Amino acid sequence: MDLGIAGKRALVCAASKGLGKACATHLAREGALVTITSRTQSDLEAAAVEILALTGAKVTIAAGDIATDEGRRAALAVCPQPDILINNCGGPPMKDFRQLTRDDWIKALDGNMLSAIELMKATVDGMIERKFGRIINITSSSVKNPIAILPLSNGVRAGLTGFVAGLSRDIARYNVTINSLLPGAHDTDRLRSAYAGRAKSTGVAVDELIARDAAAIPAGRVGTADEFGAACAFFCSQYTGFITGQNLVMDGGAYRGML
C-alpha cells in the first residue's frame, strides 16, 4: 500500500529511541523527509545511522529538549513547515500524588501538554494552507485507563486530549487531522528501565518479570516498537483524512472499556 506521503516533511519528536524512532523509521521508509529530535546529539546521530541502514533514507537531526522553547525553536529551524508532526516526550515520573510539588506539575505540563500545543500552534496554519496535515500525539493508555501510580501522566495527558478534541474538529475541513496513539506496554528501553528496579529488589530477571505481566494482556505479550511505528505511519497517510480527534489504544486489549 502506498501511503501517499513520499516527499512530505515530517517532524518526529523524541525520536532517537523507542516508539519515536520506530515512527520515524516507518515514515522514512514511506519516502517522507524526516527530521528527528532528541536532547542528546550522539543518540540522534546513532538513530540517523540506524534509520539509513534500515530504509536507505537520510534523516535530518535537531538536538534539543522539545519541552523547552529553545528545543522547539531548534527543531523548527531544521523543519520549519512540517506536513506531519509527531508529538512525543518522555513521560513524567511515577510518584504518589501526595509527594508532588507545584514544580512537578509544571514540568509535566511543559513536557506532556504544552510542548505539543506549542508545536501545533507553530505548524497547523501552514498545514491548513497546503490542505494537508497529519498530527499524531503519542500519549498513554492511561488517558483511558488511569494508572494510580502515574498521577502526572493521568492528569496532564488527559488535558492534552481535551484540547485536541476541540482543535481537531475545527480544522478537519482542511484535510488536517489530529489523532492520538495511546501505547500500553511496549518493549522499549523505557519499559525495561521501569522494570529494572523490580528486578533488582526481587532477584527476578527483567525478561521474566515482563513475561509475567504480559500474561495478563489479552494478546499474551507486550507490543513492539516496530508495529507501533507502522500504525503511526498509516495514521499519517493519505487514507486517514476522515479520521480525526480519535484516541487509539495500542495495548493488546488490556483496556476493557468499549469507548
Which descriptors apply to this entry?
7 strands; 259 residues; 8 helices; seven-stranded parallel β-sheet; alpha/beta
Characterize the structure shown.
By secondary structure, this protein is α/β, with parallel strands linked by helices. 47% of the residues lie in helices and 14% in strands. It has 8 helices and 7 strands; from the N terminus they run E-H-E-H-E-H-E-H-E-H-E-H-H-H-E. A 7-stranded parallel beta sheet has the order 3-2-1-4-5-6-7, sandwiched between helices. Strand 4, helix 4 and strand 5 (133-138) form a beta-alpha-beta unit. Helix 1 (18-29) runs parallel beside helix 2 (41-55), helix 1 (18-29) crosses helix 8 and helix 6 (189-202) packs across helix 7. The mean pLDDT is 96.
Summarize the entry for a quick read:
Helix content is 47%, strand content 14%. The protein contains eight helices and seven strands; from the N terminus they run βαβαβαβαβαβαααβ.
Share of residues in strands: 5-15%
Major beta sheet, specifics?
Answer: 7 strands, parallel
Overall number of strands: 7
- The number of distinct helices, counting runs of at least 4 residues, comes to 8
Weakly predicted, low-confidence segments: none
The N- and C-terminal alpha carbons lie at a distance of: 29 Å
Mean pLDDT: 96
Per the principal axes of the C-alpha atoms, what is the gross shape? Answer: globular
| Physical arrangement of strands within the biggest beta sheet | 3-2-1-4-5-6-7
Helix/strand order, N-terminal first: EHEHEHEHEHEHHHE
Please tell me how large the radius of gyration is.
18 Å
Helix content: 40-55%
Q: What structural class do you assign from the helix and strand content?
A: alpha/beta
